């Protein structure tokens, strides 16, 4: 088996030390692995090149969910399998896909696993593998990134940014248009998932499936800071009620309109500004990944 392994130097715990471990693990598994450690701004070009390269059985990436989203955008629709080496902070997609979170297990899934077709989603052409959101979370990501630039760890920066975001509570007036649905909403947080998530306000729940060909839309109903905090407390104790606390829809595509020309949008934990309306769609079975043979 000949593979290309792209290690994102900026993705979680990835770097030269991780690359050395991967070389040894792939050699022990009798896999010929061309391993490159790249800077974050080189990642998209390297993934696009690997997706088209001849003589490769698959492309593997090492990093977090943002790294995975970049690789998925390059490989989707090509039929070339993606190997996942979870070296990020949370690794949500690897968890939901059943990929082992230890490097030994992840390498084994690539060397001895089976291909599986899964869904990806996109907003205004930007691919994401987990979720996208508008409102509180993108604001929190902007604050977190600013604090990380100042030297704080990712976890400490996220905690501080979360508290600051709650203090600056604000709502968004949006309009959702989807097949069979058109409704105005006023919400501090709109969440769009690639397939259905368990309901959880301040943390990401798990998905039972990533191949059902649907988007889940959750809009938080809280209309002030107090109600949001109360919902958060109930969420900690597992007492959120989907009908009471969220506007919920399951669709294959959706358009999110706003009076604002641009909105801050988070995709897989990374923030960017996008022009409105936001156009979401799911791409069923567009990505092939390697998973453990027993799944």
UniProtKB/TrEMBL annotation:
The keyword Transferase applies. It comes from the Bacteria. GO terms for molecular function: kinase activity; methylglyoxal synthase activity. Keywords: Kinase, Transferase. Residues 1-127 form the DAGKc domain. GO terms for biological process: methylglyoxal biosynthetic process. GO terms for cellular component: cytosol. PANTHER family: METHYLGLYOXAL SYNTHASE. This is Diacylglycerol kinase family lipid kinase.
């Amino acid at each position: 088996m000949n593979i290309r392994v792209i290690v994102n130097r900026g993705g979680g715990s990835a770097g030269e030390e991780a690359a050395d471990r991967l070389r040894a693990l792939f050699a022990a598994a009798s896999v010929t692995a061309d391993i490159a450690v790249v800077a974050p701004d080189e990642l998209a070009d390297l993934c696009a090149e690997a997706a088209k390269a001849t003589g490769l059985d698959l492309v593997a990436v090492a990093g977090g969910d943002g790294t995975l989203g970049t690789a998925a955008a390059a490989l989707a629709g090509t039929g070339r399998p993606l190997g996942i080496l979870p070296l990020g902070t949370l690794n949500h997609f690897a968890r939901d896909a059943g990929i082992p979170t230890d490097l030994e297990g992840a390498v084994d899934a690539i060397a001895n696993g089976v291909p599986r077709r899964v869904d990806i989603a996109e907003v205004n052409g930007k691919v994401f593998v987990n979720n996208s959101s508008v409102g509180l979370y993108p604001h929190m990501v902007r604050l977190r990134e600013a604090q990380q630039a100042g030297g704080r760890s990712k976890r400490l920066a996220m905690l501080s940014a979360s508290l600051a975001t709650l203090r600056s509570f604000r709502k968004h007036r949006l309009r959702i248009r989807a097949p069979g649905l058109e409704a105005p909403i006023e919400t501090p947080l709109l969440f769009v998932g690639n397939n259905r998530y368990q309901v959880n306000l301040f943390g990401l729940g798990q998905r039972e499936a990533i191949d059902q060909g649907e988007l889940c839309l959750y809009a938080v109903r809280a209309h002030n800071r107090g109600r949001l905090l109360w919902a958060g407390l109930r969420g900690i104790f597992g007492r959120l009620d989907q009908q009471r606390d969220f506007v919920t829809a399951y669709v294959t595509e959706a358009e999110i309109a706003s009076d604002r020309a641009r909105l801050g949008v988070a995709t897989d934990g990374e923030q960017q500004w996008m022009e409105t309306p936001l156009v979401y769609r799911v791409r069923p079975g567009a990505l092939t990944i390697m998973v453990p043979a027993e799944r």
